[in-house]
Amino acid sequence: MPGDYQKAIGLIDEAHALDPNKVIINDEQTPYELHYARKMSSYLEKRNPLAPETVRLAIRAQHFRRWEIRRDSYPMSKPGYHAWRTYLKKRQAEQAALICTESGYSQEDADRVAALIRKENLKKDEETQVLEDVACLVFLDDQFEAFEKEHDEDKIVGILKKTWGKMSERGHQLALGIAMSERASELVKKALAE
Predict the structure, then answer these.
(1) Of 126, 110, 138, 106, the residue nearest 41 (C-alpha)
(2) Is the Cα dihedral 11, 19, 167, 184 positive or negative?
(3) 99 or 156: whose pLDDT is higher?
(4) Whole-structure pTM over 0.85, yes or no?
(5) CA–CA distance from 27 to each of 30, 37, 138, 160, 165 (Å)?
(6) Is the dihedral angle over the CA atoms 20, 34, 62, 103 positive or is it negative?
(7) Is 24 left (phi over 0), alpha (psi -120 to 50) or beta?
(8) Tens digit of each residue's pLDDT (9 = 90 or more) over 95-104
(9) Contact (Cβ atoms closer than 8 angstroms) between residue 159 and residue 148
(10) Is residue 119 a contact partner of residue 131, using CB atoms and an 8 Å limit?
(11) Which residues make beta-bridge pairs with 123?
(12) What residues contact 47, with CB distance under 8 A and at least 6 apart?
């Protein structure tokens, strides 16, 4: 029996709706992680409109309940950042897999969603690459302009290079179509020129 996709998406979005961090979207306060998940799904439609449900669920749950584990709960260093991210991926994958099984998906499908969220076999697994492309596109579209104001230019250019290096050619094509401020566009051009 196939899983109940609408039930799974509903449970994921119910959790996203609990995020106390808010953004204004169309003059309405929206929980940030719900906004982020919707952006992820929107970019998936551009990147791979025929993606299977397992990919759609992983995309929607990629930051599942992320706000519960604050960045500052880990050391504010590069190793601390990586430890935080590793823990989040593992936790988010486990929680999303539970939602999948609660929604009637097989353990195999739930495990696949979890593996995608953990970004296993990036660059070798096309579906994992799709998730990475989508996450990078959402960063560039939704988070980059605010992020670049908080860091010096060298760090931003380095992050843009790393982001670009994680993406596929199709991801690059979509990224070049994102409307950005003049300053953000200059930084992207600089990163790509180096």
Answers:
(1) 138
(2) positive
(3) 99
(4) yes
(5) 9, 19, 20, 30, 35
(6) positive
(7) beta
(8) 999 999 999 9
(9) no
(10) yes
(11) none
(12) 130, 133, 134, 137, 170, 171, 174
